[in-house]
Design goal:
The protein is an all-alpha fold and about 120 residues long. The chain is about 65% helix and about 0% strand. The protein is built from six helices and no strands. The chain has helices spanning about 1-10, 10-20, 25-30, 40-50, 70-100, 105-120. The longest helix is centred in the C-terminal third of the chain and has 29 residues, at about 70-100.
């Protein structure tokens, strides 16, 4: 994180202010003394304008993190696509579950319907 902060030209106090935490609290995060939860990690990635995945990538010797401006519309499109994939997957699971349920109709109901249909 220190590399990202320096590359972005921020001081620890500037990043702390952006995250709405104290400078000592941010210093502990940057030093690895304090662990962060996923929501805080997302906030930090937004400050540095990188994806959360970039925190977990190994650094290449010649090409370290490149800080770029993220396009919020593209991020939203990616989120919508991922959510649609999840919805589609869940719909398919529901369909398979319904197909696996055997259709059981009591015999009395079958005979009533069968007789009614025969009269038509």
């Amino acid at each position: 994180m220190k590399l990202l902060r320096n590359k972005a030209g921020f001081t620890q106090s500037e990043v702390a202010r952006e995250l709405n935490i104290s400078c000592p609290a941010y210093s502990k995060i940057e030093a690895g003394i304090t662990d962060v939860n996923i929501s805080r990690l997302i906030e930090i990635s937004d400050v540095f304008k990188i994806s959360v995945n970039d925190f977990f990538k190994e650094e290449d010797e010649n090409d370290q993190f490149e800080i770029t401006e993220r396009n919020p519309i593209e991020s939203l499109k990616d989120t919508v696509i991922k959510q649609n994939e999840i919805i589609y997957s869940l719909q398919n699971k529901i369909i398979k579950l319904y197909e696996a349920i055997p259709l059981q109709v009591p015999n009395a109901e079958i005979s009533e319907y069968s007789m009614g249909e025969a009269a038509l």
